[in-house]
Amino acid sequence: MRHHHEFDREHHHHGRGGEHHHGGGGRRQRFFGHGELRVVILDLLSRNASHGYEIIKEIETLTQGNYTPSPGVIYPTLDFLEDQQFITITEEDGGRKKIAITAIGEQWLEENSEHLEHIQERIKARNVGFELRKNPQMKRALENFKAVLDLKVNQGEISAAQLKLIIGVIDRASLEISQLD
After folding, report:
1. Could you tell me which of 44, 16, 177, 24 has the C-alpha nearest to residue 120?
2. Mean per-residue pLDDT pooled into runs of 10, the chain (181 residues)
3. How far is CA 25 from the centre of its chain?
4. pTM
C-alpha cells in the first residue's frame, strides 16, 4: 500500500506543477484536497459513463462555477484511476474516449463513502462562502471574524472556559441570524 502513496504524491505533484502554468494560480487548485478529486470523479462516473470534458463540466456545475478543473488536472487523475483499475477508458468511433467505473472502482467508492460525504458537505459550504464573499462588507466581516478566532484560539493559550464562551458567542450569532426575517 505504501507504494501507492509514494506514487500518489509524485503524481499529484506533477499535476499541480502543471496547473500553475495555466494561470490557475496555486489557490484554485486547492479547491479539492489531496486525493479528493479522485473520489468526486468516481462518484460522477458511478452515475453514468462519461467523457473527460463532461467530467470537467459536471465538476464545474457541482461547485456552481467556482472551480473548473483544467485538463492538466483531470487527465493525470484519470490515468491514475485507470492504473488502479478503478475505471476503464475505451476509444469510441470518432476518437472520443469513453470512461466508465469498474466493479473495483465501485467497491473503492463504497469504502470511501464517508469521505465523499465530507467532500460534498465542504463543497456546499464553499459555495455558500463564495456567494457571501461577493459582498465586500460581508467579505471584510468574515475575514475579520476568522482573524480574531485565529488569534484567540490558535495563537494564544486558551482555557476550556474561554473556549466555551467563544463557542457560546458563535452559537448565539448563528441563532440570531437564523431568526432574522
Report:
1. 44
2. 40 38 42 88 93 92 88 92 96 90 96 92 85 85 88 80 90 89 80
3. 16
4. 0.60
